[in-house]
């Protein structure tokens, strides 16, 4: 498959196409290196080692990206990523789709401004991390689901780079049921006292 070979280094060697145009065409065509004959064995071995060093570095980066994607997608808490400049939602996980009721495609047409209850938006914008450190949950926020229902949540925001763009990762825990249980327990305790 293309994915299986996409990160395979390609070394092109030619005895006939040795001019600059041919080398440029080879590199532009996908070769990672282009050598011309006559070729010293030491140069060939050094070039192969250099390509393998680059391949190993790319492999480590690809593995860490895969781990990030796996963590993001399998996280039981709702997570999404939004652009730092225009606040457009760039990615969401399965838990966010389930919690908020939007499809992934619908989420991609939203911005951060569409998620909180309208009166809370200015406070949410003030929460965006300024110093590169994640914000800890400091209060309960009200968020709107697709159906218009309000849920009470705790949110952690962390800055990150995604495809060369400044963005934020939001990790959201729905506290609605927990808070409703606390209120019910307090009412029951009050009833017992009375």
Beta-sheet strand percentage? 15-25%
Strand order in the sheet with the most strands: 4-3-7-6-5
**Poorly predicted ranges (pLDDT <50, ≥5 residues)?**
none
How far is it from the N-terminal to the C-terminal residue, by CA?
72 Å
How large is the count of helical segments? 7
**C-alpha Rg (nearest Å):** 26 Å
Q: Would you write up a description of this structure?
A:
The protein has a five-stranded antiparallel beta sheet with strand order 4-3-7-6-5. Strands 1-2 form a two-stranded parallel sheet. It has 194 residues and is α+β, with helices and mostly antiparallel strands. It has helices at residues 2-5, 20-28, 41-74, 94-100, 104-108, 121-127, 176-193, and strands at 11-14, 33-36, 78-83, 89-92, 141-144, 150-162, 165-174. The radius of gyration is 26 Å and the shape is elongated. 14% of the residues are buried.
């Amino acid at each position: 498959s293309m994915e299986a070979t996409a990160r395979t280094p390609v070394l092109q060697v030619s005895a006939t196409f040795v001019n600059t145009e041919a080398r440029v065409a080879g590199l532009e065509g996908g070769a990672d290196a282009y050598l011309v004959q006559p070729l010293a064995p030491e140069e060939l071995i050094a070039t192969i080692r250099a390509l393998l060093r680059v391949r190993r570095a790319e492999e480590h980066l690809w593995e860490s990206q895969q781990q990030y994607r796996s963590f993001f997608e399998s996280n039981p808490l709702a997570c999404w990523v939004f652009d730092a400049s225009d606040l457009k939602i760039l990615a969401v996980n399965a838990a966010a789709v389930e919690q908020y009721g939007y499809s992934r495609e619908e989420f991609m047409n939203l911005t951060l401004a569409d998620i909180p209850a309208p009166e809370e938006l200015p406070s949410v914008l003030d929460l965006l991390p300024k110093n590169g450190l994640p914000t800890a949950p400091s209060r309960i926020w009200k968020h709107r689901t697709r159906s218009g229902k309000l849920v009470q949540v705790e949110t952690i925001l962390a800055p990150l780079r995604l495809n060369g763009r400044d963005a934020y990762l939001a990790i959201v825990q729905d506290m609605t049921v927990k808070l409703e249980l606390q209120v019910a327990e307090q009412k029951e305790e009050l009833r017992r006292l009375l």
